[in-house]
Amino acid sequence: MKRFGSRGLTITRPEADAIIKRSTGGYATAQSGPAQLAFLIGSPTDDSLKGGACSIFDFRMTLDVGEADRLRAVRLASYFADDWVQIRVDGTLVASGPTAWTGMGPPPGKCEKRSSFHAAPELDISAAMTTGPHEIWMRVAVGNEGEAQARIVADLDLGCRASERIVDLCAGIAGQQQCRLHDETVDDVVTFRNGARTGLAPLPQTRTLGTPACQVQITRDFFRRDRRYACAIDTASLPPPDLTRGAYIIDRSTETLLADRARSAEGSYQESSRPFAMPDRGAVAACEPICKTRKLRVNSDVAPEGVVGSLQNDPQGWDVFYHSCTSDSLCPAGEGEELVSACGCLDDFPEAVAMMQTVRLAGADLARARHDRRRPDQTLLRARG
User: Fold this and answer.
1) How does residue 375 score in pLDDT terms, banded at 50, 70 and 90?
2) One domain for residues 202 and 127
3) Exposure check for the chain: N or C terminus, fewer CB within 10 A?
4) Position 261 in a domain
């Protein structure tokens, strides 16, 4: 029974809105950097708030955090007001001005300040930005006329990431007592064979996954594991196989007749026979017809001692060729070749064996002669003996 386990790897590069977004409230979302979003809340137009003697204005904005682990930082970057302002995150006061204003009532001083103030605290509020919705609440106190604004900046991690899961189809079988591991291959390395460990193990691999625009290098001990299990089957509840039918077929069938005896559901036997013949295999030639030719050749090879042909009694020799014959039994001999054996089933194996043995013995004689030249003292002793 064969099963496998593998790593399911998915390369993702999220959109900024999937990490954090302004779902309600506020008045603008701006891309303030390649991986930075700014969320704006308030009424920044000059004297856009009419407060009379002293009025409280509420501005609320909801930020939805989808992937908190991709938030590098979330900051209250800046805020300003004419006249007073409070900034709360999920109800918790994080900033106020122009002086401390902590209560839920009117500001602790004259409402009309006759000027606006600006602050850029770059206050880190990342700890509050867990996954889920978060409310940014801005309370503004205005005497006569005024304006206010707060700017929340989120630094994002937009890099490519790999998410993985192990697909293990072996677990169900590996936990069964009647099954044992028979063969295993891990990333094309055979670690188990016939129930025994081979002693081999794959080295950790580094693979580059994804697309050219979004690539991630993953190093893992394995990426795919194929296993084959041998399981013992309880045969006590299975009926024994009926071997008498096979014996009946073998004993009573011939080259032209196929006999059979089948057992019905009631337990009775039904005998039958029908003609039988092997399919025609067609005629096959005894061999591929070939012919043998030879061509005159003068030995002009060169060795350190000079031209080899000049050292021979007769420098003339023959090159032997074998050709496959045409369909009409003609030998396609080349230019200058003369026919030695006509088309047919040629058998030159004895000649080939004799030639190989000649070459082998000649090589042995050369080796022996070279050895004798290197040891002249022993050669002399053998000669004297």
Assistant:
1) low
2) no
3) C
4) no
